């Protein structure tokens, strides 16, 4: 697995955990950690998570059984 794909996976995991916390406990961990949901740092992380999710879409349609 390439470094780029590992970063995409890590950002997707961070986003998934954060959404899980929002859904279960109404707690935005990224917002809490970085100074509120409207802070520039939180918005950057949210944007990176969204870009990672979009970049990961082609991976759903490719077959990488052999490397």
Describe this entry's structure for a reader.
It is a single chain. This protein has 3 helices and no strands. By secondary structure, the chain is mostly helical. Helix 1 crosses helix 3.
Helix-strand blueprint:
Blueprint: H1 3-25, H2 29-33, H3 40-56
Name its key features:
single chain, 67 residues, mainly alpha, 3 helices, 67% helix, elongated
Summarize the structure.
Helices cover 67% and strands 0% of the residues.
What's the overall geometry? elongated
- The average pLDDT is 92
Structural class category: mainly alpha
Radius of gyration: 14 Å
**Topology order in helix (H) and strand (E) letters:** HHH
Task: Outline the biggest β-sheet.
Answer: none
Helix content: 55-70%
